[in-house]
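User: I'm preparing a small set of examples for a lab meeting where we compare how different chains pack in three dimensions. I only have the primary sequence for this one, and I'd like the structure in token form so I can line it up with the others. Please keep the answer compact; I'll paste it straight into my notes.
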Amino acid sequence: MRFPLKLSALALMTSLAAPAAFAQSTAAAQPADPVVASVNGIKIHFSDIQADAQDIPAQMQQLPPNQLFPILVSQEIDRKALLIAAQKEDLEKNPAVAAAMQAAANIKLENAYVQQHIAASVSPAAVQAAYNKDYAGKPGPEQVDARHILVKTQAEAQAIIDQLNKGANFAALAKKDSIDPGAANGGELGWFSQDEMVPAFADAAFALQPGQYTKTPVQTQFGWHVILCEGKRPGPTPTLADVQDQIRQTLADNAIKATLADVRSKVKVEVYNADGTAAPQAAPAQ
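Assistant: Understood. Below is the structure token output for the 286-residue chain.
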């Protein structure tokens, strides 16, 4: 039984592609950016709908394109109608509204600057170069081959350890006592790397040498474990497909940090306390 950690998903700041099913089904036989609706003469283009499709909730992305498209068009019509109504009341002249509009425009501009300056850093060529440097031809993370016995209580796990200390067979005890679905296979987990298991289990398994079992019960959210290490080895070299999302995220993070450091180095920064009094200025970064 595997206990995978929740891996963080790669999050880039923006994407130009609509959800795949929507884009594929609507791309064929379309004129360049057709008008799909208009409100008081304000045209709504297909590209507007594509942009909206980027931000829809995950459950909506599962809708068939012929259902999703009219929903997004209707939402755009509502937005245009609201905009027209707000403009008739001159709401953009309200100081609070104007400030909020300017703040939103500034964020868009900031994001565009960052995106422009990190694009080359996360290009396919950059990802391939990073893979060649950090992964190609090198072994992957260490792996352990292990068995385990899962029970409900610490006392049950300790009783199993006591039996192992007296020479009992681990696989036989797993078949008899473990509540894990893999009990029928003697608790066999096969080879795994540390990030494929929840931390408490992984830490205990990787601390063992081949032939050793845990001398104290190991607790996770699944229950109490007794773990036997049957072998260790370097992991296989990961493929580019295995690690490309991780590489992109690392490259993007590094590029963003470098961009922020660069723009800060070109401006004068003064920092004040919450009450407006002067605050000690940090020494310039070396």
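A couple of notes for your slides: Residues 1-20 have pLDDT under 50 and may be disordered. The domain at 140-235 is CATH 3.10.50.40 (Chitinase A; domain 3).

User: Perfect, thanks.
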